[in-house]
Amino acid sequence: MTAADEARPGRRRGVVGLLLGLVGVVILCALGTWQVERLHWKEGVLRQIDERTHAPPQPADAVAATAERTGDVEYIPVSAHGRFLNGAERFFISTFGGDAGWNVYVPMDLGGNRFVWINRGFVPYDRKDPATRREGLIDGETDVTGLARNVAAEKPSWLVPNNDTAKNQFFWKNLGELGLGAGLPADARVLPFVIDAGSGRAPGGWPVGGTTVIDIPNNHLQYAITWYGLALVLASMLGYQVFRAFRPLAPAPDRG
Questions:
Q1: 95 contacts: CB under 8 Å, gap ≥ 6
Q2: From CA 8, how far away is CA 15, in angstroms rounded?
Q3: What residue ranges do the domains of the chain occupy?
Q4: Which residues cross the membrane (predicted)?
Q5: Alpha-carbon distance 108 to 221, whole Å?
Q6: How far apart are CA 34 and CA 137, in angstroms?
Q7: What is the torsional sign of CA 186, 188, 190, 195?
Q8: For residue 253, cis peptide bond before it (omega within 30 degrees of 0)
Q9: Among 3-12, 28-37, 244-253, where is mean pLDDT lowest?
Q10: Which of 132, 152, 159, 144 minimizes the C-alpha distance to 106?
């Protein structure tokens, strides 16, 4: 067997390794490019949220028209005038200011057989019973200004618990389940979103409004840098291997 025959398997392995390495570089670059695309998308989302939250409030009916047309009214400022149906409070597990408790949702009668659910804000566990916060149960007509929030037609994830309507404990916003036993007319028109009331305390201190949390992480730039950096490292290693494979061999020493 000649020296060339002995070297051939090693060369084949080297070529296979080089091809696999090139595939790895392509994949890493593709992942980096995908993160750049995600970065532009996320910046657009954050820009839209910023524009929405700083816009003047729109009437509830105008926001309802947008919801029916586009299905997305998240964080649009909205104002509503009507009367709370305090006997139909619904409670969502929540935290606020480091304390655990409930967000209190209540339907508002807007008149004309129109209703919208209002997240009036946070109460601690020991204030769930309306009797412990009678002053905050506003009777008569009132105004609410806050942010519109989308509702879900189905549970967002299997990780989210099911709403327990029997115990009046909710984990995700579903208008059908919220309305069970609320005493709304059978032909009521419930607007297709809910309103997170703006900051401020109700009379007597509870509920506390302004519970909306807008905290959307945007780490796509560092992810892109990571993928591109790994691609550069791998490409450098492949380049070094190619250099070693094709560099001129030093001449054999003259033994004459």
A1: 101
A2: 11
A3: 3-49+217-246, 76-209
A4: 15-34
A5: 43
A6: 51
A7: negative
A8: no
A9: 3-12
A10: 144
